[in-house]
Write a structure and sequence with these properties.
This protein has a single domain, classed as Glycosidases (TIM Barrel, Alpha-Beta Barrel), CATH 3.20.20. It has 16 helices and 14 strands. The radius of gyration is 21 Å and the shape is globular. It comes from Natronobacillus azotifigens.
Amino acid sequence: MSNSRFPEGFLWGGATAANQLEGAYNEGGKGLSIFDMVEFVPKEERTKSVEMDVRSETELEELLNADEGANFPKRRGIDFYHRYKEDIALFAEMGFKTFRMSISWPRIFPNGDETEPNEEGLAFYDNVFDELLKYGIEPLVTLSHYEIPLHLVQKYNGWEDRRVVEFFTRYAETVFHRYQDKVKYWLTFNEINISTLSPYIGSGMLIDRVENKEQAIYQALHHQFVASALAVKACHEIIPDAMIGCMLARMEVYPETCNPDDVLAALEEDQKNLFFTDVQVRGYYPSFMLSYFEENNIEIEMLPGDEEILATHTVDYLSFSYYMSMVASGSPDKKREKGNFFSGVKNPYLEASDWGWQIDPKGLRVTLKKMYDRYQVPLFIVENGLGAYDTVEEDGSIIDDYRIDYLRAHIDQMGEAIKEGVDLIGYTSWGCIDLISASTSEMSKRYGFIYVDQDDYGHGTLERKKKKSFEWYKNVIATNGEEL
């Protein structure tokens, strides 16, 4: 398969999050984050619809007082904190043009509401950025990737409290000033829409503290929208040559049939998904969402000037994750399949991953065209990949042809979308090195081009090994997508 569709300067790379790879949760002055409290639950024992959720004060207290043998995988990650030079050298060997990572907010402000940052945390990211730039790799940095300081949950119930806007803005301004000569690509909130499914992970809220769950979720989201816009404002003022974007967990939704009820259900699911980017890219709440609020007695408390802030400080580009598509039905009793936090009717035309996520490369092309038609701003795919079980052969090799097939098909469809006029500026494959799963805290659910010797319980040498996909992706980057 050969093409020459990708523009010169296309940003090829890989994506990670601090809470899934850094480890060192209690080193360098770091405070606890919300994900530090998520315990590993074996598959056969899972009962929650969103396994990473923490819902109550009681549950949080139990986790804080867990015994020494408790398994909190995101506290250990894959020890990037001590091994970042080794890992970045491997990324450079693959030819990465960019590396998407996040700054851990509680590494900079351990409690979140301090007035002065933690210098040891700031210095760590200085070192990481310097290492990336040594190899000519552009850092792409997410300000908040499920890394809300736990103290903000305990004291303020997270983003439900308007004061958290001020704390986040201070944090954003601190890192913009510190890294203004090192980081030119920024994102505000990772998968901001996840708050509707996990108020704890998305907004740092314990839902048993609120009277009206949906009211609280959308009020917290409003505060995040304002904080995102204020971060855009600060970034433009402090680093005028930088680009700052938003990030959505994208779910392309198809109607189950041509029955108008199914078509309408799919349209409404799509609107709910794109509401978040409507606010951040267009700068205002869409009319369909205002109608939804009215029908459901949701009243968003806005301060004077909020609407002007949202309208004036819109993002420079739109980034998103894409793993799968979904199917909507107008019939409420249809069986739903689970995947990437969302659920939908099973699509009989698609194969699925080891975790039941339906594989749909053409859906990526559909979503690229749809989103570019809607917004007319540059797009950036910052998460896409295949979670799978990998086997280390007797000779030490890892033959992950299934991963190559998945990525090849998606990259091919990206190229077709570019050829059809979509302004796509980059692609960072999710979990370019094996790390802890966000949704299940598993290590055995692997995405990377680089294998890390660690199991779900933290056993292993942490040795890094190149998979077959490592050399394949290296060649994709070297040929700017011409050879897949």
